[in-house]
Design goal:
Radius of gyration: 19 Å
Number of helices: 8
Helix content: 25-40%
Distance between the termini: 53 Å
Strand content: 15-25%
Order of helices and strands: HEHEHEEHEHHEEHEEH
Shape: globular
CATH architecture: 3-Layer(aba) Sandwich
Largest sheet: 7 strands, mixed
Bound molecules: S-adenosylmethionine
CATH class: Alpha Beta
Oligomer: single chain
CATH superfamily: Vaccinia Virus protein VP39
Number of strands: 9
């Protein structure tokens, strides 16, 4: 894909950690291409959301800095927090790129963040989570973002599901693909645990259709969907969200809405729509 911006002159630290699992031995340059591409998308988010600066940035999950190294090079002035379950990755990002290291938790609600970040980059996290953790992650991201802050997160939608359906090898060989695709076709959300993972860790592969994501975003009247870009980061889709308190009225119902009393529907007497219509 053609670059969105020319970052070729950026002085990026190309030191790769010995335990970085994101480097493909056959395609070593792809590691840097995807990092640079993430920065392009983040810079695009800044333009879309009219943000000249991102002074406080969270990279979750940072891994071993595939993207963080580009953030450090471009946003030299920023406080960057590097957060992951992989402590070796967090330590590396802290030492090598001057990020603030924070060890993560499986339950993200346990992390000590408040509404403090101007930008949260979430590259390939919810793509591995079962539905309750996917939804909890979105709740946390919105909570941790400042007013007028931006979230850029990646998902796996029509591209990854189509590759799996066509039998393309090496997209994911360690899951029950037929079960995944059946659930995806039926509901728009699908998750299968990796064969090598266990019930406690529960790490796997999640698919979300654009329609399912849109419907889920209806839970957040304070969040504006600035962009949904299919297949913008490798095989993954990219979503750009902008937080603006009270921007929308919560008129639309959401089937997955686990946080809200379903009996208080917007259209019911006493509900929001009822109030707007004088009922
Ligand atoms: C596919 S890797 C992506 C890493 C990085 N974003 C990149 O692009 O190189 C997924 C990462 O998610 C991390 N992870 C999984 N669950 C997490 C959680 N609850 N909190 C933080 N990191 C998590 C894993 O440790 C792993 O480093």
């Amino acid at each position: 894909m053609k670059p969105l911006y020319d970052f070729s002159s950026l002085a990026v630290d190309r030191t790769v950690a010995p335990r970085d699992g994101m480097v493909s031995p056959d395609l070593p340059e792809q590691y840097f291409d995807l990092g640079r591409r993430a920065l392009e998308l983040i810079h695009f988010s800044a333009e879309l959301c009219d943000k000249p600066h991102y002074p406080n940035i969270l990279d979750l999950p940072c891994g071993h800095g595939r993207v963080l190294r580009w953030l450090r090079a471009h946003y030299g002035y920023a406080n960057i927090t590097a957060c992951d379950l992989d402590r070796d990755g967090v330590d590396f990002c802290g030492k090598q790129f001057g990020a603030k290291p924070v060890y993560s938790e499986v339950d993200l609600h346990r992390l000590p963040f408040a509404n403090q970040f101007d930008l949260i980059w979430v590259g390939s996290l919810v793509t591995h989570l079962r539905k309750d953790r996917w939804l909890a992650t979105l709740d946390c991201l919105v909570k941790w973002t400042k007013e007028c802050g931006v979230i850029v997160l990646t998902t796996q939608g029509r591209t990854v599901s189509s590759l799996l359906a066509r039998g393309r090898r090496n997209v994911a060989e360690n899951i029950d693909k037929p079960a995944l695709l059946e659930e995806y076709a039926r509901t728009g959300f699908a998750y299968q645990r990796y064969f090598e993972s266990n019930a406690e860790e529960d790490y796997g592969l999640a698919l979300t259709s654009p329609e399912w994501v849109m419907r889920t975003l209806q839970r957040y009247p304070d969040v504006i969907l600035r962009a949904y870009l299919e297949e913008a980061w490798g095989m993954q889709d990219v979503i750009i969200l902008y937080k603006k308190a009270g921007h929308f009225e919560p008129l639309l119902g959401v089937p997955e809405m686990n946080a809200v009393d379903k009996t208080a529907g917007a259209g019911k007497p006493g509900g929001l729509l009822g109030k707007l219509l004088g009922r």
